[in-house]
Amino acid sequence: SEDSLGLRSGEAEGKYTSDIFGLNVAAIFDERDRNFIESGNDLEADEDVVTTYDGKSKRFVTKKILVRDSSSVPKYFLGISEDITEQHNVREKLSKSEQRFSKIFQSAPASIFIISNTTRTVVDINDRFVGYIGVAREDIVGKKLSDFGRLLDKTTVALIEQVITERSRVVNQEISVTIGNNPEMHILVSVEQVDYADDSWSVFMGQDVTARKKVEAELVLALEKQKELNVLKTQFISMISHEFRTPLTTIMLSTDLLSRYSDQWLPAERDKYFIRIKDTVLKMTQLMENVLIVGRLDSGQFVYSPEEIDLAAMCFSIAKSVEFNFHNSHEIAVHFSGNCSKAMVDEKLLALIINNLLTNAVKYSTGAGKVDFFVSCDGQFAEIIVQDYGIGIPEKDLQHTFQSFFRASNVGPIPGYGLGLSIVQKCVESHLGKIELKSKLGIGTSFIVTLPIGGK
């Protein structure tokens, strides 16, 4: 239309091609038209990028139909041009998006394969998965799930089939896999379900933790042989810190995958996946931070640096912060005695002590609704007592309470990683203080921390 060429209605009448596109471009078009007429073909299509009359760059597809007279002699041809600029731009953007996704998908540290739940065929696999199975991509993509039987053990194939049938979502499920004649591997598997109008996909992501399992086994063996505990703990912490970075990358890849197809989902379904993934990232980040704190405390990177602070004000502030973080599910009753306004302590280390003790107190007393927090100072020492009225700690577990990664046998589904009290003990030791624990199962637990506050 005239509008597509940058002309007003009726403005094209009486104009030559050169008037609209310029002499050089018009000459090319004219030569092409002559060649078409002389070619003897009745139909031809060309795609061109041209500068329109108003100076804009646009892309057109022109279809030419040759019209002949009764003697089959070419008489004239009919040209139909379609402005495909917008469609081309959309294709370009889509192509770039696909290239970006493909690069992330293929370079991901986790092995990934996608299966259509409807057809049971493999939609795609990434390079890491290709490396594991030792079979070319073209020999897998588009093939039926049943073809996996020659690559994976029957138990693994059955698990994949079950996930697809039930449209299950899996988070970090550890399985043992045998691929071909290779040794058994330990894989941490996660599965996300991606729904479309006419199909749904199961996106399998697997992280090889065989090396980690081997390290864990070696650590257990070393403990049994009573090797030096601190060396073992440092190795374990380093291993955990390293291994948790890869799942974070995998989770973020999932977010990118969901983002790419989000326009094809229902909003509620899309938001559910995003919230779930972001929450997982946050939890793993918090875990990694705690692990790194333990490592820094062990290696002496946290140097005890006392300064004069208002201990009462600090304790009150942290108590209110913990209340807020738990949506005010518990009242933390703060009781002060003595003058705590000029305490010489390491503020960062003390904050770790108080925050971990109060957080545990609230977390493990879900039905109580109240935690008592006592702070008293006599000029030389501060005594901090956190008393909860929750589940308590079994007597057989008391001796292990301050060990890293230890959790009492009665915590059930309450989330945690067993690092908080280990951090507390190390921070107390940095202050040259002491910590005591009293607990009765089903009645509650109290921690008594005594710290010197009079300076060196």
Describe this structure in words.
The chain has 456 residues and is of the alpha+beta class. The chain contains 11 helices and 15 strands. The strands form 4 sheets. It has a 5-stranded antiparallel sheet with strand order 5-4-8-7-6, with helices on both faces. Helix 3 packs antiparallel against helix 7 (229-261), helix 7 packs antiparallel against helix 8 (267-299) and helix 9 (311-325) packs parallel to helix 10.
In a few lines, what is going on in this structure?
With 456 residues, the protein is of the alpha+beta class. The protein has helices at 17-21, 23-39, 85-107, 127-133, 154-166, 210-224, 229-261, 267-299, 311-325, 347-363, 420-430, and strands spanning 43-51, 57-68, 74-83, 111-116, 122-125, 170-177, 185-195, 200-208, 307-309, 331-337, 343-345, 370-377, 381-388, 434-440, 444-452.
Task: Tell me the series of helices and strands, N- to C-terminal.
Answer: HHEEEHEEHHEEEHHHEHEEHEEHEE
Share in helix: 40-55%
Overall spatial form: elongated
Would you tell me the overall average pLDDT? 81
Query: What order do the strands of the largest sheet run in, or round the barrel if closed?
Result: 5-4-8-7-6
How many DSSP-defined strands? 15
Query: Poorly predicted ranges (pLDDT <50, ≥5 residues)?
Result: none
Strand content: 25-35%
Q: Tell me about the biggest sheet?
A: 5 strands, antiparallel
Please work out how many helical segments DSSP would assign.
Answer: 11
Radius of gyration: 35 Å
Which structural class should the secondary elements be placed in?
alpha+beta
Give the termini distance in whole angstroms.
88 Å
